Amino acid sequence: MGFGDxxxxxxxxxxxxxxxxxxxxxxxxxxxxxxxxxxALSSPPPSDLFHALRWYNHIRSYEKEKSSLPGVKKPxxxxxxxxxxxxxxxxxxxxxxxxxxxxxxxxxDEEEVGRIVKESEEAKRIKEERLAQYEAKKSKKxxxxxxxxxxxxxxPWDDETDxxxxxxxxxxxxxxxxLWGSSKLVPVGYGIKKLQIQCVVEDDKVGTDQLEELxxxxxxxxxxxxxAAFNKI
Length: 233
Fold this sequence. Notes:
By secondary structure, the protein is an alpha+beta fold. It has helices at about 10-20, 30-40, 50-60, 90-100, 110-140, 165-170, 210-215; strands spanning about 145-155, 180-190, 190-200, 220-230. Helix 1 (about 10-20) packs across helix 3. The protein is elongated and about 95 Å long. It holds the Pfam family EF-1_beta_acid.
């Protein structure tokens, strides 16, 4: 599993294809998986890889909130298509072997070895303190709520339907996780106009099937309801 060398043209192509039918690296909301892959890139993907570029710009908008996104960070090679070999482990091993070649253990005296050990212990202590601070900060932040913006087309029976009353009925629907927005009347022909109304919903609480059932329940005014546009927020 992996993206190969994600900074290379081939690796970016794998990322773009992987995101062709996905909004995020894992799941349906931004998470630490997106942060890991985002931080592995040194620059935005080229414009012709529009799936990867769309995802990159979206995750970049979470720069200030990325530490509070859900999930636990895993190595880069734990994400991506199952059929692509992860090269990050091999690259890390090669870099480690190169570093080992640069260290002259036989030339280090006891004082130098002691200094290295002390610095390693200090770095470990600082890392543990920062992790503790991060966990404490993360526990105080509310969980990210997935929301969607929906544009509904509500059609009346005929040109004699009271559209003001129809809209009043629609807006009378009140439930947790539903917020009504702006609206307008749009001509559809033969003197008939449909109500086009915007709403924002919390995905875990309100669904389009539920809205359709409630809206079409006003049988004296509503003939049908369609979803004109649906966008994740």
